[in-house]
Design goal:
about 260 residues, mainly alpha, about 0% strand
Length: about 260
């Protein structure tokens, strides 16, 4: 109970910090709008390609933008830890009775909640732009679950990287190196069966692809339950593994101070 209470308080702290950055919130909300509108217009005729498998590109793109948005938000979450390290906030927490687990869990819970909010807003925007999701509320709920299960492990990896590197430039470079390939080595923008063979092979091991494929299937008229369940299971396993890595990175940091 102590850890849960402390995680709740840490989550509130991170939300308060976020609310003090209205410009950041504004850009976070505007960016997926730009992606949906620009990419939706730029690639809208690719659905005419034989075998694409979607009647309207906005139907195909919306779940991809949901996953991409939470991916980049989670991938940059380590910057908050860098800021706390530079300002000495983390060291002050370490001499307080706060639960050590809560210091990481609070950030991951905040990421999960932000992923839910972003997903709902993007799906609503997609529907305004003409997207239709036969899977209904159940499908949207499963898409949001996939988004959360991607945000948490990526956020945990970003936090672990920040605790080990402790340099803003290193985290920025590593995030760019990881996030862009994860996006383009998936079917966020293009149907899987139209991608080059080697990208299709790599995508099978890409957590972004797991989330996108499961989310799209959940929103379709005939959801593939085994596929959705398998991809969600893989994302859960990844979450457990990365949470362990973040915990280990935090212990390494504790021993170094």
């Amino acid at each position: 109970m102590r850890t849960l209470a402390h995680s709740f308080y840490m989550t509130l702290r991170h939300f308060r910090n976020l609310m003090r950055q209205p410009l950041y919130i504004a850009f976070t909300l505007v960016q997926p709008i730009i992606w949906l509108v620009l990419f939706g217009q730029l690639f809208k005729k690719v659905v005419l390609l034989p075998g694409f498998g979607a009647s309207a590109y906005v139907d195909f793109l919306t779940p991809g933008v949901v996953i991409m948005t939470v991916l980049f938000g989670a991938g940059w979450s380590g910057m908050g830890i860098i800021r706390d390290l530079d300002l000495g906030v983390m060291d002050r927490f370490l001499v307080s009775p706060v639960s050590r687990v809560a210091l990481i869990a609070g950030r991951l819970i905040q990421l999960a909640l932000i992923a839910v909010i972003q997903s709902v807003l993007i799906v609503a925007l997609g529907m305004i732009l003409g997207a239709r999701f036969p899977g209904g509320a159940r499908g949207v709920g499963l898409l949001i679950l996939c988004a959360v299960l991607l945000a948490v492990p990526i956020g945990a990896l970003s936090s672990a990287m920040a605790l080990v590197a402790r340099k803003e430039e290193t985290v920025i470079a590593a995030s760019n190196f990881i996030l862009l390939p994860l996006t383009f080595l998936s079917s966020v923008f293009m149907a899987q069966n139209l991608m080059p063979g080697w990208i299709q092979a790599v995508a099978r091991f890409n957590p972004v692809e797991w989330a996108v494929v499961a989310g799209r299937s959940a929103l379709s008229a005939h959801m593939n339950w085994p596929l959705v369940a398998t991809r969600i299971g893989l994302l859960v396993a990844l979450t457990i593994i990365t949470a362990g890595l973040a915990t280990r990175a935090f212990r390494i940091y504790q021993r170094s101070v």
